[in-house]
Amino acid sequence: MPGGERLALFAECVLAGLCTLVAAVPLVTLLPALGAGCAHVAAHLDGRSTALSTYPRRLLMSFRGGGLALGALLVLALAVLALDLVAVRRGLPGAVPVAVVCAAATLALLVVVLRAAAVWRPGGPCWPALLRDAAGRARTDLPGSLLLVGGLGMLAVTTWQLAPLVIPALGCLLMGGVAVERRLS
């Protein structure tokens, strides 16, 4: 891939990361925002339009098929896991095993969500079917799941070091999700 194409891909990842971050601010819109962001990166890779005006259309379409309701359930599940981790830090008996289970459950949930978002396309299958299929692929394609865990770790460390880097790091995570899913086909 020539340098100009690599720069264009990175620019689209930054744009997708920014749009996804803004769209996910209400939290319950996290799942549809991830789907729209991955679709935006995939559109660039497929040579389709990635004009800024296409992201809001993709986002609105991603609300269909249970995107908003499942996004709310996702936030609720992550909140419960976070509360469990807070309780563990308070010194409850058996804190280490509970912390390990909570961390593993959080990573597994995020990997499944990223895999589902990476294959979402406007007019495609609804979110429950995508999540169900993504859970199966997460189990059967462990190398791909570990790549996404590494991407999540990169996002966390990069953001921890310098908060404004969350935008390009999120875009790169979206691209990573699309790449992990495309390597299977």
Main β sheet profile: none
Residue windows where pLDDT falls under 50 for at least 5 positions: none
Radius of gyration: 17 Å
What fraction strand?
under 5%
End-to-end distance: 20 Å
- What gross morphology would you assign? globular
Mean pLDDT: 91
Give the ordered list of helices and strands.
Answer: HHHHHHHH
How many independent structural domains?
1
> Helix share of residues?
over 70%
Number of separate helices = 8
Q: Specify the structural class.
A: mainly alpha
> How many E-type strands?
0
What does this structure look like?
- The longest helix has 25 residues.
- The model has no long low-confidence stretch (mean pLDDT 91).
- With 185 residues, the protein is mainly alpha-helical.
- Helices cover 79% and strands 0% of the residues.
- It has one domain.
Quick summary of this structure?
Keywords: Membrane, Transmembrane, Transmembrane helix. By secondary structure, this protein is mainly alpha-helical.
Secondary-structure map with pairings?
Blueprint (H helix, E strand, L loop, with lengths): L2 H21 L6 H17 L7 H9 L4 H23 L5 H25 L7 H14 L1 H20 L4 H17 L3
Helix pairs in contact: 1-2, 1-8, 2-3, 2-5, 2-8, 4-5, 5-6, 5-7, 5-8, 7-8
Keywords: Membrane, Transmembrane, Transmembrane helix
Protein name: DUF624 domain-containing protein
Tag the structure with descriptive keywords.
185 residues; mainly alpha; globular; membrane; DUF624 domain-containing protein; transmembrane helix; transmembrane
